[in-house]
Structure formats: structure tokens, C-alpha cells
């Protein structure tokens, strides 16, 4: 059966994920070392140790994302996160930065290393480089690839691959995007936040709700319409004569129906996005996907997706997995 | 500090490219990185210009390097990347994939699209053979200072973004094609209509971004006009100037004057403003609070 | 998951209207102190945002609530005269209760506009995340305050939950 890797922003969400069927849960520390450094989220070292004990007692793994790029002059914060993850008994760390990978391989050789999607390793040459240089055992593939490309990659590499199947969708190559810091000064790479809430302002203007990020208007929606969060690349903009979602529509990924094809493409693990979401979200999504991977493993038809209401803009896409997306 | 000209981001006709590099050969810059960075589909239309440009630049005494693509996914692109070695020039790695094709021990350069945020990463790349690096434009002055110091200790010059629309993101999707309701595979090369990228405004008419095929740029032109002293003090070795369609040779001369102390920041700003697309400048990644900000602005950008 | 959240029956909303504020504020104060004491991690998660003033606006009730986590204080105010605040969260009572009890995802309620946010968005996120981790249960918290009346209170609230469709206790086995 393909491994189901599920998000947890809090200990309560981690317990919900484990109880509803996650094979593995990924989470991070409550600081800038992880790419979901949102207010009120994440784990202290003590909480992580308790969470690992809880998960291990129920046969689930815990993967710790330390996937921002350490700030020059402040590397010890990231190095401590690695040591804390190992001390807590984490099953693997998810890393993106070359320097941090080198440090982990050198100082924590027994701690399994996964390559974060933030490293944007999108072809066999890059993946094999990370595998040979840093002993990376699994790579989380960027969301810019088609299923056929994923299959081709798996034929040329010796490490496991993990792909996103549900949740928020980055339209840009992850880990290589400074749109957020251009508008707000804070970026996923440096601060672990994209389009941070601290820079969001909603304003009711006439019959519209305007959402601004760092002073830039990201979208306007009629008061009664669904209101997506003002994530920069999913905003509504104008270029020449055209107005619309120039980069990406405010939809999120749902690749449930592609699970059999992804299995055939040699994918080892399926990842659900959403460490910033609630335990209610985690429970619903994990339960649905556990049923789907079990059905797939048993050769049964996949259950219908019931998750539309949880998706942003309440619409879903197969994203880049279908080539037409490009 | 010296001046380095980066690879051209845009899809220009071959004869424009020819004229551009001919003019550049007597511009006051120390080195030039050229080649296709953004989209491998464009390359056949202008790659015939590359050997002549290299020859003219080398003859004029410039150091020359060839860039890798920024995002390498297709088999054809991987092959292309492997073949860059054959030119006998240093390869500027702008996707780590290219490093996989650099034999161990062979020197290479690292471009602004590789994530060098800290000492550990810089040290690893230097050990692997990096001989010159341009840092990501997103870095703050404090980070630049730490990395420039390490570069000096290791004998590897560290340069920073000096001028040009900022390369903010790269994607598998082509926004130019999307704006024209075309798929990437049948784009008909519409990005050639916008020699400096196609502007993107907010719904309230604020100047914001520009798209260039699969690349997203800032609409403002970043300029270190007012940051030269701070960067010199930080130990930065060179400013990188990114090509634009109008007046680029004069822009190079302007920065050379600024580095030589013949004009001040305000003087360079006054010269640049009418020349950059849209007339907007920024230096906020360095000076704060956000990338779009211009430190010399009297009002918030 | 229900496709739409219940609105508070009109009769109940009207019944709440003449309720005098002092006794209500007494109850809210005790409840908030109890939550704060029983769930210290909540305040820790809020960090600096604990000092913010949150205006909670249950649109189907006649008053609004001002929550000040740092002081473990919550007070009711007439909607016509809302107190000064840093962030406002508005929605039906049922949306608040569903989010609080883990029956609904806060982001999903926001995307669908069942909840709307104004002001300090980061503080609201922090509050939402801190409450989500605390796995609050209103019935149990009220029962804990009720001493010998805990058992009859649980019965009354369970009945109210059935009658109104509101989530008044934590979703145990999860939806």
C-alpha cells in the first residue's frame, strides 16, 4: 500500500491524523525553521517528543519538516531543530537547504533524510545529486510534473518519491519564489510563510470585499461570493486588456482519481497538504484518503471524493498532473 | 566593485541579440553571462548568435560564462544542460541540475536562482568547485554581509543583484501562453511581443508584477543606486546588471560612473528613471521593508 | 458534514435579548477563567497575540463578545455599541460552535463566508489554531463550573444540542 503522509499543525491535529489512518504525519517546530511558520501553529520540542510517542504506539511515523533556508549568521537555530528532531525520535527529517543537508548527513547520519518539495528537485539528475551527495532517501516531487514525467523520473532514480495529492497548490516552483517577500518582506524560504496573515487587510468597499497583501490588492469579491485567502499567486490581476487569475485560479489540488496511475508510476507515498488547517480538516481528508489507498491496494474502485467543501474556492483541479495545466 | 551583466531574460529577435552583445563588448563591464535562462523552446531562434557574441566579448577582454536554464524538467533540457560543458566556458548554475553535469573538481559559477541563503550552503558549493556566486535577490543586507565575508575568506567573489526587474518566480506553466488562451506546447512564442515582460497590475491599478513566459518578474526595476556604499562595506565584489531592451549600454555606463564616484545615488536614479520600463525603481529586498519598496521614495511605494 | 449550518431558532435569539448583561458577564468571566486555567497551552500558542482584543460577533444573538485572552476576560456588549477591538470575527453562533468543537474546519467556514474576519488577521489565525489544539468542549467546561448541577446540565445541553443542531460538545470520534 502506498504510504499516506498527513499534515499536523498541532498535537491535536497529529492525534486526529493518526486516529483516522495516517501512515505517517509530518509536522514542524514553532519557529522559522519550517515552511508553515504560522501564528498559533506547530510543536515545541517537548510536544514533538510526546507526539512521536503517541504515533509510534499506534504504528505511525512522524516526519519533521525543517524545510526553510537557514538565515546567514543564524544556522545554529536550524541545527538545534535537527538535534531536537532526532532526540524526539522522529522517523525522518524533511530538508531543503544544501548546507543543512550537508550538516545533517555529517552530524546526524542515522537520521533519515527526505528532500523537501522546497528544494524543487524536478528531474533525475537533480534527485540523484541530492541522493549521492547527502544520502537523501526520499524526494517530495514538485507540483510542476505530469504523471508521465513522474514515472520517467522513477525509472532513473533509486530513492523513493512522494507526491502531493490534496490541498493547496503552488503554481510556482516551490522554494524558488519570492513573490511573497516582494509584497510583504516575508517569504517561504526565509520566514516559512507565504502571503502572511500579518500583512493581510480585508476591507469592505461598496458591495465588494477587497483583500490586500502588503498594500497590494490581491482580489475583490462580491460580499456574498466565496472569499479565498489572498495568496498572491492566486489573486486576480489585470494585464493589458485582460483581467483574471493570471497565475492560478483559487482552486486546490485533488488527485484522488490519479492514485492508481501514481501507484503505477512507482510513487511510494502520497502527501496531503494543510498543516495550517484544523484537526477537523485533517480528520476528514485523512479518512477519505486512507479509504482510497486501501481500495487502490485491493484493486477496488476508488470511493467518490467527498472533500470539495474543504478546498479553497471550493473547486479542485488535478493541477500539473494533467499536462493541459501548463 | 565590478559590474557583471547577467543573461537576458527575454525573447528578442536574433538580430536584436546580435546588436545587444556587439554594443556590450565596449561597455564598461567586467564580465557577461549569456545563454537561455527562461525557456528552452526559445533557444533555437537565437542560439546561432551565441558563438559570435562570445567571441566578440572575449576579444574585448570580458570574462564570459554560459548560463543553465532556470528550471530543467524535459529530457531535451537535461541533454542541453549536459552539452553546456562543451563550450569550454564556466557554466553558471541556475538550477542545481546543471551541477550534476559539472565534473567533480571543475570550476563553475552559481547564479542568483540557486538558493544560497547561508554559510553552510556557500561553503558546500565552494568545496564542490564554485568560483563565483551571485546571491539570490531576496537576501537582506545583513545576510549579504555574512556571505560576502565568507566568500572573501575562501577567495570566491560574491556578487549581488544590481539592476533589473527581479526574477521572483519560475513555473512549469507559461503565463504568456495562458494570457493568450494557449497551451504551453502551442504557445506560438507570444512572449516575443513583450521585450521587457508583460506588465501585471492589481485590480486597483497598482503597478505590481510582469510575466515573461514561465517566469514572473517584478514590475519595478530593482536598482542598487543608493546602496553602493553599504554593499562595498559589506565586501560585495560585483553588481549584476540584468539586460533590458532600452538604453542598456548607457545604464552600464551609469553604474560604472556610480562605482567610480563620478555620480551619486540621486544622479544615477535621475538617469535611470526615464530609461527603465514604467519608470519604477525598488531596492526593498536590501533596505526593507519589502522587495517592492524604494528607499529613496518620499511616499510609500 | 451538513451542507448548511443551522441558524439559531428565532425564538431562542429573541429569548436571549432581554437577558440582562451583568449575570451573563458573570458567567462569561467564570467560563473564560476556567478555560484559561484548564488549557494553559492555549495562551502559550497565542504568544503576543494574547494581548489583542477579539470582538466575537455571533450574528444571530443580540450581543457581541469581547475576548481578551491575556486577562482571561470575556464580556458581552450590545451590538449597537461594540467596544474597541483589534480584530472582529463574525458568523452564526452555530459556525463558531462547530469550529470550536472540531466539527468544522475554520478555513472552510471562511472560504464559504460562514465566518468573516476584519482587522488583525494574524491574531485571528493564532486564536483559531490555539483553540483548535485545545480540543475545547463547552458542555464539559460548563459542567465543571456547575458543581453538583453538572449532571443535569449535561442532560439539558445534550437536549439543546438535539433540538437546535448546534454543536455543544467536542466531536469525539471526529466527523
TrEMBL record, chain B:
Cofactors required:
[4Fe-4S] cluster
Functional pathway: Cofactor biosynthesis; ubiquinone biosynthesis
The UniProt keyword set, sorted, is: 4Fe-4S, Iron, Iron-sulfur, Metal-binding, Ubiquinone biosynthesis
Keyword Metal-binding present in the record's keywords: the answer is yes
Keyword 4Fe-4S on entry: yes
Describe its function. Required for O(2)-independent ubiquinone (coenzyme Q) biosynthesis. Together with UbiU, is essential for the C6-hydroxylation reaction in the oxygen-independent ubiquinone biosynthesis pathway.
Q: How does it assemble?
A: Forms a heterodimer with UbiU.
Listed name of the protein: Ubiquinone biosynthesis protein UbiV
Which species does the entry assign this protein to? Tabrizicola soli
Q: Which gene encodes it?
A: ubiV
TrEMBL record, chain C:
Gene3D superfamilies cross-referenced by the UniProt entry: SCP2 sterol-binding domain
Alphabetized Pfam families for the sequence: SCP2
Top-rank lineage group of the source organism: Bacteria
Where is the SCP2 domain positioned along the sequence?
41-132
Q: What is the protein name given in its UniProt record?
A: SCP2 domain-containing protein
Tell me what organism the protein belongs to: Tabrizicola soli
Amino acid at each position: 500500500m502506498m504510504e499516506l503522509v498527513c499534515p499536523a499543525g498541532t498535537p491535536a491535529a497529529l492525534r486526529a491524523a493518526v486516529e483516522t489512518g495516517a501512515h505517517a504525519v509530518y509536522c514542524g517546530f514553532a519557529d522559522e525553521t519550517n515552511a508553515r511558520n504560522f501564528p498559533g501553529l506547530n510543536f515545541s520540542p517537548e510536544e514533538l517528543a510526546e507526539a512521536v510517542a503517541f504515533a509510534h504506539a499506534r504504528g505511525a511515523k512522524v516526519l519533521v519538516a525543517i524545510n526553510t533556508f537557514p538565515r546567514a549568521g543564524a544556522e545554529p537555530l536550524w541545527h538545534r531543530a535537527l538535534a531536537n528532531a532526532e532526540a524526539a525520535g522522529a522517523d525522518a527529517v524533511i530538508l531543503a537547504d544544501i548546507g543543512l543537508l550537508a550538516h545533517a548527513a555529517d552530524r546526524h547520519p542515522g537520521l533519515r533524510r527526505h528532500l523537501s518539495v522546497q528544494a524543487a528537485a524536478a528531474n533525475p539528475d537533480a534527485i540523484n545529486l541530492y541522493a549521492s551527495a547527502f544520502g537523501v532517501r526520499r524526494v517530495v516531487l514538485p507540483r510542476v510534473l505530469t504523471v508521465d514525467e513522474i514515472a520517467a523520473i522513477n525509472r532513473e532514480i533509486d530513492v523513493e518519491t512522494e507526491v502531493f495529492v490534496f490541498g493547496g497548490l503552488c503554481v510556482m516552483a516551490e522554494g524558488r519564489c519570492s513573490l511573497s517577500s516582494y509584497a510583504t518582506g516575508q517569504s517561504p524560504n526565509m520566514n516559512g510563510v507565504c502571503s502572511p496573515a500579518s500583512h493581510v487587510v480585508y476591507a469592505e468597499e461598496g458591495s465588494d470585499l477587497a483583500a490586500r497583501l502588503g498594500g497590494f490588492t490581491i482580489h475583490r469579491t462580491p460580499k456574498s461570493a466565496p472569499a479565498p485567502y489572498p495568496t498572491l499567486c492566486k489573486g486576480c490581476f489585470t494585464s493589458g486588456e485582460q483581467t483574471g487569475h493570471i497565475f492560478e485560479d483559487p482552486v486546490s489540488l485533488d488527485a484522488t482519481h490519479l492514485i492508481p496511475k501514481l501507484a503505477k508510476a512507482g510513487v511510494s507515498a502520497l502527501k496531503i497538504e494543510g498543516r495550517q488547517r484544523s484537526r477537523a480538516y485533517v480528520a476528514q481528508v485523512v479518512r477519505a484518503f486512507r479509504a482510497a489507498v486501501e481500495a487502490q491496494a485491493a484493486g477496488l474502485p476508488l470511493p467518490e471524493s467527498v472533500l470539495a467543501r474543504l478546498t479553497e474556492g471550493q473547486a479542485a483541479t488535478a493541477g500539473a498532473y494533467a499536462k493541459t495545466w501548463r | 566593485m565590478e559590474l557583471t551583466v547577467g543573461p537576458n531574460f527575454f525573447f528578442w529577435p536574433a538580430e536584436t541579440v546580435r546588436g545587444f552583445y556587439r554594443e556590450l563588448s565596449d561597455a564598461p563591464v567586467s564580465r557577461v553571462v549569456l545563454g537561455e535562462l527562461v525557456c528552452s523552446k526559445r533557444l533555437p531562434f537565437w542560439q546561432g548568435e551565441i558563438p559570435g557574441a562570445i567571441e566578440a566579448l572575449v576579444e574585448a577582454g570580458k570574462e564570459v560564462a554560459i548560463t543553465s536554464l532556470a528550471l530543467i524538467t524535459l529530457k531535451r533540457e537535461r541533454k542541453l544542460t549536459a552539452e553546456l560543458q562543451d563550450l569550454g566556458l564556466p557554466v553558471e548554475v541556475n538550477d542545481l541540475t546543471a551541477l550534476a553535469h559539472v565534473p567533480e573538481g571543475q570550476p563553475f559559477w552559481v547564479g542568483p536562482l540557486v538558493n544560497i541563503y547561508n554559510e553552510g550552503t556557500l561553503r558546500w558549493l565552494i568545496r564542490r568547485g564554485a568560483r563565483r556566486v551571485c546571491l539570490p535577490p531576496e537576501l537582506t543586507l545583513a545576510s549579504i554581509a555574512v556571505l560576502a565575508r565568507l566568500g572573501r575568506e575562501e577567495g570566491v567573489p560574491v556578487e549581488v543583484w544590481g539592476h533589473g526587474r527581479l526574477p521572483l518566480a519560475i513555473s512549469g506553466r507559461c503565463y504568456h501562453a495562458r494570457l493568450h488562451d494557449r497551451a504551453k506546447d502551442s504557445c506560438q512564442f507570444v512572449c516575443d511581443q513583450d521585450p521587457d515582460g508583460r506588465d501585471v497590475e492589481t485590480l486597483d491599478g497598482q503597478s505590481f508584477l510582469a510575466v515573461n513566459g514561465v517566469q514572473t518578474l517584478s514590475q519595478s526595476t530593482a536598482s542598487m543606486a543608493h546602496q553602493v556604499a553599504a554593499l562595498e562595506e559589506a565586501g560585495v565584489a560585483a553588481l549584476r546588471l540584468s539586460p533590458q531592451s532600452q538604453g542598456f549600454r548607457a545604464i552600464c555606463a551609469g553604474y560604472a560612473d556610480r562605482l567610480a564616484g563620478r555620480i551619486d545615488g540621486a544622479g544615477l536614479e535621475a538617469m535611470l528613471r526615464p530609461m527603465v520600463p514604467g519608470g519604477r525603481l525598488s531596492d526593498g529586498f536590501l533596505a526593507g521593508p519589502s522587495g517592492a519598496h524604494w528607499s529613496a521614495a518620499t511616499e510609500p511605494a | 458534514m451538513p451542507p448548511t449550518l443551522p441558524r439559531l431558532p428565532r425564538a431562542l435569539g429573541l429569548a436571549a435579548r432581554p437577558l440582562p448583561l451583568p449575570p451573563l458577564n458573570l458567567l462569561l468571566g467564570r467560563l473564560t477563567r476556567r478555560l484559561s486555567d484548564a488549557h494553559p497551552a492555549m495562551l502559550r500558542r497565542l504568544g503576543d497575540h494574547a494581548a489583542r482584543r477579539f470582538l466575537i460577533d455571533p450574528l444571530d444573538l443580540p450581543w457581541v463578545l469581547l475576548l481578551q485572552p491575556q486577562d482571561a476576560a470575556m464580556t458581552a456588549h450590545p451590538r449597537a455599541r461594540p467596544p474597541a477591538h483589534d480584530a472582529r470575527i463574525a458568523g452564526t453562533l452555530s459556525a463558531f460552535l462547530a469550529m470550536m468543537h472540531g466539527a468544522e474546519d475554520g478555513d472552510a467556514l471562511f472560504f464559504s463566508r460562514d465566518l468573516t474576519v476584519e482587522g488583525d488577521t494574524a491574531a485571528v489565525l493564532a486564536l483559531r489554531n490555539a483553540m483548535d489544539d485545545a480540543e475545547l468542549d463547552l458542555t464539559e467546561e460548563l459542567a465543571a463550573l456547575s458543581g453538583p448541577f453538572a449532571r443535569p446540565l449535561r442532560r439539558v445541553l445534550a437536549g439543546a444540542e438535539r433540538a437546535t443542531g448546534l454543536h455543544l460538545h467536542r466531536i469525539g470520534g471526529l466527523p
